[in-house]
Amino acid sequence: MTTKDELRKLLIERSVRLGDFTLASGAKSDYYIDARRTTMSAEGQRLVGRVAYAAIQDHGLDPTHVGGLTMGADPIAYAIAHVSALEGWIIDGFSVRKSAKDHGTGQRIEGGLPKDARALMVEDTMTTGLSTLKAIDVVRAHGAEVLGVITLVNRSEDAAALYNAQGLPLISLYTGKELLEAAQSS
Q1: What's the confidence (pLDDT) of residue 99?
Q2: pLDDT at res. 103
Q3: Do 52 and 78 form a contact (C-beta atoms < 8 A)?
Q4: Which of 57, 72, 152, 167 is the residue whose CA sits 20 to 30 A from 80?
Q5: How many CA atoms lie within 13 Å of 153's alpha carbon, on the beta-carbon side?
């Protein structure tokens, strides 16, 4: 079994729920994927870091940083950063807050993202892609270059076109449909 197969199995066991749900986008769905139940587990960290790191290499991207909206992107970005250190190609993590904090330095981006960074944006479970687009705007306004978007689970039908219009590739590690089908058959 490959590392990607192991991660798929863990996502199905821990994160896929069948039933009636309202998604963050407001849409109704007969399944829900709470990726954090996987990405915040020790085994999930190991697998997510390896699978996402390999996908970044396979797509020929050369980011200096990975991150996205806190909190869904955080464990994925940090798992990638950890694996990158083990592999000797350093990719640091960062987080984008939904709003600037009202104390301390009042930053919206945490983790020391330099203005000359080449950032790869991260999403855990993508439905419309719009929340990551907001994070992209924050990172670009900061002065960093955005190279693309990587999502653990892509439930969207049109997110690739949304990012393509921005000149950004979308890397989807899994689709919602493939996880749903696997969950229904098990």
Answers
A1: 76
A2: 61
A3: no
A4: 167
A5: 25
Sign of the Cα torsion 44, 50, 51, 55 reads: positive
Across-strand partners of 151? 123, 172
Count of C-beta atoms within a 10 Å radius of residue 63: 23
Asked if omega into 121 is within 30° of 0 (cis), the reply is no
Q: What integer pLDDT is reported at residue 81 of this predicted model? A: 98
Domains annotated for the chain, with CATH where assigned, are 45-174 (3.40.50.2020)
Whether the Cβ atoms of residue 98 and residue 64 lie closer than 8 Å to each other: no
Q: How many residues does the chain have?
A: 186
- How, if at all, do strands 92-96 and 145-154 pair? unpaired
Give me 140's structure tokens: 């670009």
Number of H helices, E strands in the chain: 7, 8
The tokens describing 47, both together, are: 């697998």
* pLDDT in the model for residue 106: 61
Give per-10-residue mean pLDDT for the chain (186 aa). Answer: 97 96 85 96 98 97 97 97 97 91 73 95 94 95 98 92 95 96 91
Cα(128)–Cα(175) distance, integer angstroms: 13
CA dihedral for 62, 65, 66, 68, sign (positive or negative)? negative
Taking the C-alpha atoms of residue 134 and residue 144, their distance in angstroms, rounded to an integer, is 14
CB neighbours of residue 135 within 10 Å: 26
